[in-house]
UniProtKB/TrEMBL annotation:
<keyword id="KW-0732">Signal</keyword>
<comment type="similarity">
    <text>Belongs to the phosphate/phosphite/phosphonate binding protein family.</text>
</comment>
<dbReference type="Pfam" id="PF12974">
    <property type="entry name" value="Phosphonate-bd"/>
</dbReference>
<feature type="signal peptide">
    <location>
        <begin position="1"/>
        <end position="20"/>
    </location>
</feature>
<protein>
    <submittedName>
        <fullName>Phosphate/phosphite/phosphonate ABC transporter substrate-binding protein</fullName>
    </submittedName>
</protein>
<dbReference type="InterPro" id="IPR005770">
    <property type="entry name" value="PhnD"/>
</dbReference>
Length: 298
């Protein structure tokens, strides 16, 4: 998921060969005790417009209809802020969002994490340029400049900022952070910044496309796997229904992963589905507090 601005199982599958009559009876009986909407409105916090939603997530939407046995309607949003507002106004039921967006969304709407998609090789690095004389992240102290992606990005801002903090640096005072998006690595190549922090996938792609190697841009630090991208449910849904959705998604995770693999530039290729709880995202909250934005996530 991309980030902007500061920061947002259905019934158990009836096992065995039962008759259509008994299955219908069980479902009818359960529906009397669990409140379920006739349809589910589904948003992806980083995709603008219905056309892009259909292009990247149309296969997933169709699959979700089969898995959840509910009509799924896309609800386009302009940003994660808009997705949070839609949750508050009961305009959307399910949202697929990024880690940093989730913590803001959770703070504003008490959205419920259901399951999450853990990307392959989803971690951050801080790199410098050969010949810079910098041997460690701590040596960036003293007003040196590091390029990052965009404000609030999990892998392009918060993740590398956590690596600065782990090295004993205060990201507000010990160095300068420039949010240069696509121009960050070219700026490091030109020597206009002392270091660059971002996702290892973006780092690898830059080296490959420019015929470079890690020797040209030595890595100073590597971070742990970042939190996964969660599916969240509106807190206004019946908790028992949310639990059923979770069960059905987990039971059909291989199909879901296949449907989502090619979305958003193939960034979910090779991913896996994981169970999730809110505490998985405390690392992001800690970084927000360290950079003076704790109110955004509390």
């Amino acid at each position: 998921m991309k980030r902007r601005h500061f920061l947002w199982a259905s019934l158990l599958v009836v096992a065995g060969c039962t008759t259509a009559t008994s299955t219908s009876t069980k479902q009818a009986s359960t529906s009397k005790t669990i409140k379920q909407p006739e349809k589910l409105r589904f948003a992806v916090s980083d995709v603008k417009g219905l056309e892009d939603l259909q292009k990247d997530y149309g296969v997933l939407r169709t699959l979700l209809e089969e898995i959840l046995e509910k009509k799924i309607e896309f609800f386009p949003v302009e940003s994660y802020i808009a997705a949070a507002a839609a949750l508050q106004l009961n305009q959307v039921d399910l949202v697929f969002t990024g880690p940093s967006e989730y913590v803001v969304m959770r703070a504003r709407t008490n959205a419920i994490p259901i399951v999450a998609i853990e990307r392959q090789k989803y971690y951050c690095v801080i790199a410098t340029k050969l010949g810079s004389g910098i041997q460690s992240v701590a040596e960036l102290k003293g007003g040196k400049t590091i390029a990052m992606w965009d404000v609030g990005s999990t892998s392009g801002h918060l993740g590398p900022t956590k690596l600065l903090i782990d090295a004993g640096l205060d990201p507000k005072t010990d160095l300068k952070i420039q949010l240069l998006k696509k121009q960050g690595l070219p700026a490091l190549q030109k020597g206009t910044v002392a270091a660059w922090g971002g996702s290892v996938s973006r780092y690898d792609k830059f080296l490959q496309s420019n015929g470079l190697s890690e020797k040209d841009f030595p890595i100073l630090a590597k971070g742990p796997t970042l939190p996964a991208d969660p599916f969240v449910a509106s807190s206004q849904l019946d908790p028992a229904f949310v639990e059923q959705i979770q069960q059905r998604l987990l039971q059909n995770q291989n199909q879901i992963l296949k449907a989502i693999a090619l979305a958003d530039g193939n960034k979910f290729e090779g991913a896996k589905m994981v169970q999730v709880n809110d505490t998985n995202y405390n690392m992001i909250r800690d970084v927000y507090k360290a950079i003076g934005q704790g109110n955004s996530v509390s």
